[in-house]
Amino acid sequence: MDAVSRAVESFYGLTTAWGIPWLIPALVIMTIVVSIILGYISVAAMFLIWWERKISAHIQVRFGPMRVGGWHGWAQSIADGLKLLLKEDIIPSRADKVVFVLAPVVVFAAALAGYVTIPFGPGLIVRDLNIGILYMVAISSLTVVGIVMAGWSSNNKYATLGALRSAAQAVSYEVPLVLSLLGPVILAGTMSMGRLVDAQGGTWLGFLPRWYVFPQIVGFLVYFTCALAECNRLPFDIPEAESELVAGFHVEYSGMRFAIFFLAEYANMFAVAAIATTMFLGGWQGPLTTQLPLIGVLWFLLKCYFLIFVMMWLRWTLNRLRVDQLMDFAWKVLLPIAFANLVITSLVVAL
Amino acid sequence: MSMTTPIPIGTQVITERLGETMEEMYVNMGPQHPSTHGVLRLMLKLDGEVITDCIPYIGYLHRCHEKIGENRNYVQIIPYTDRLDYLASMAMNFGYVLSVERLMNQEVPPRAEYMRVILAELQRIASHLLWLGTFGLDLGNFTIFIYCFREREMVLDLFEAVSGQRLNYAFYRIGGMAMDFPDGWIEQCREFLTWFKPRIPEYDALVTDNILFQKRIRGIGVMDGPTAVNYGLSGPMLRASGINWDLRRNDPYSVYDRFEFNVPVFDTCDVWGRFLVRRQEMIESVKIIEQALEGLPSGDIQAKVPKTIKPAAGQAYVRTESPRGELGFYLVSDGTPKPYRYKVRSPAFCNLSALTEMMRGCLVADAVAILGSVDIVLGEIDR
Amino acid sequence: MTVQLGIFYILAAFVVWAAAIVVLGKNIVRAAVALIFTFCGMAALYVLLDAEFLAAVQVLIYVGGITILLLFAIMLTSGISSVTARVVNEQTPFSAIAAIGLLLGLIYASTRGNAAMAAPPRLPETAPFLGRLLLTTYALPFEAVSILLLAAMVGAIVLARKE
Q1: Domains in chain A: boundaries
Q2: Residue in A with minimal Cα distance to C34
Q3: Which of C36, C68, C76 sits opposite A171 (nearest CB)?
Q4: Using CB atoms and an 8 Å cut-off, which of residues 130-149 of chain C contact chain A?
Q5: pLDDT tens-digit series, residues B279-325
Q6: What is the pTM of this model?
Q7: Choosing among B29, B50, B143, which should be mutated to test the A contact, i.e. which has the most A CBs within 10 A?
Q8: CA–CA separation, A138 vs A131, rounded Å?
Q9: Cis peptide before A122, with omega less than 30 degrees from 0?
Q10: Contact call for B368 and A60, based on CB within 8 A
Q11: Is residue A65 a contact partner of residue A76, using CB atoms and an 8 Å limit?
Q12: ipTM for the assembly
């Protein structure tokens, strides 16, 4: 937004007037922005954890957290976070210490780095990269690496198997994910997230918003399914399944390290919902955005949280798929559909 | 597996058996595991992801039930039978007292007969509900578990109202029942049935019609009819393989021949078939209970039995249809108040013996679903 | 010393350090993890060269694909944790000579300079430019590489199938 860029400009002007090299204000701005993003992720993740428990409870005819903090247990996540912080830090004796410690860091860093190109509102992007969506997809593939590292370094045969399964699943579902995201890219003619949202402004026939979900409904459904698989959510949560034979990849992690994995999972969920919102649901577009730009943030968040609600809803309704059925589905069903979607979209655009 | 070969644990076997295929691995499931439904240990021999052999180790819950029975008199054994299949205690009681009554040629008053059927069918519903909930839970569907337990709680409330106990009732007596229904119990039961009837379509919407659920359980754990009969399977396992055999219909005991109900038989021979049989059985049990409540006669609930139950020397084997299959109680009396020999034919034990056959050729992830479909209760298997 | 040059030196040091762990490390899994960092460092260097598309694709393909494959191969090899990688072998002297010779040659070449080393014009967006190039001027190599990849995939599947 203009106010933000004007503030940044004046800050730069001030520091050059004082003779400070431009690196220092750049670093200061970066630190502030990263703190804002980190703060947002922490609060959002805590909210999402509480919300998930509430949604699961209400679907299951029970209440969920009700006591901690008074009204419907809103402080439950804070209590859980505190508890995890205070737990003993256990590293398995024969685990590879360096890799063991590094794995949650990699996963969380990947989840965090994806927030750089999310357009929270008009002009409210950390950096509107030219290759916005490609950057986000590339970063989300880093989480797979962290998972494999976590599984291996636990020195636990079942954790390794679980991690490898998770990696295979994530890599398989990445392909239709990227292909389904290319549809809106072709329609908008750009990979930049900010410009993608701009291209979805306005309406057809006066009432139907020009969101890409309408021409690209198939792409949206393929993307949403692949996003569920990337986040290891049911029905694709074989890597985290407790009642299957193979335990999850984070079975040896406890305390704060486990909290980081958990946080990264919810941060990832928000990131994929944000991508879906930006590419298909028009991002921050909505009524009154020209008069009141900040309301774009509200629309964006509403759409994101709606998609997250659907993800949670699906988790508590459906059951798990078997690993080979999962792979079959990715390669034999989603991939051809995504390809067909891409071909048809490009044909329609070219003609 | 002979007693001389060392029991393989984990991947130790790879080093011992390097001469064989490098791919084969033994994976141990249990005895403590969220999905083994009790203390069962399964040794799965894997070739990659495919199960080539499955060796169940039982006996972790063996409590010398039959030997204890030889040192108790006939009435004292009743609470022990509860703990056999603790998820279907009423059915265990039922089978046992019928066996003693056969031994003694004891008549049972009609009201008690009807009570027995009502409680046994309610127990069938409760047992199948628990099975359905845990089966869904194993496959990853957490919600069906809560829904089934909500209904099961209502049945347990009914049982608590009538017997004072939620789980191990010891309610049946030789020659009748311990107590009559309390006031308002029949209305409460009818309320439960009214509440329960629309629940089955609700479960259908959640699991039965869910294509993901069907994909998980269709085509695995196959056991065709003749093989099932050869293994001595009974209950829903047999009826899912196309064999129309239900002891309530084919060898009626108590007053089951007075009720109209269907016996669900499916011929898919797999886990999906067993799922459908148990689901349908719940619906049929509702019908039986309604008919029994309609025709509940008044009168005594306990016939005159001697103070010390001393059946004449002889033997009796009575088989009943428990939720898991053919439950048999074999009693040999030598004229004393304590049985000379007391044997329980456990349906889950016989059903479990077929597990190896069913597991062969399936993937590891199916092991949990197949085991769930057998509906084992270790208390009954190990006694 | 501009900021860009400083960042370049930091990144270069990071990449060289990670690559050194890859080559000289005894623990093979740690070497694989260091390889991930090498690739990420390379991607950062691409960004410095204004090739942001290439950087993103480097992360996506190399880190998100090839290193995963590498880790798979390492983890599915039984007994891998008990193997320590040999850092030096019989060919070390020869390879040392070759490496030092290459280094000297590169230093000499970079000081000499060349017309081809002039910085190319800065493009606002490399992706559309690359796309157009790949499908027009370089269409034939593109198709040839695709067929090569297809052959590799088919070969891998055929090799991995159990009879």
Answers
A1: 87-350
A2: A99
A3: C68
A4: none
A5: 999 999 999 999 999 999 999 889 888 888 888 899 999 999 999 99
A6: 0.86
A7: B143
A8: 10
A9: no
A10: no
A11: yes
A12: 0.83
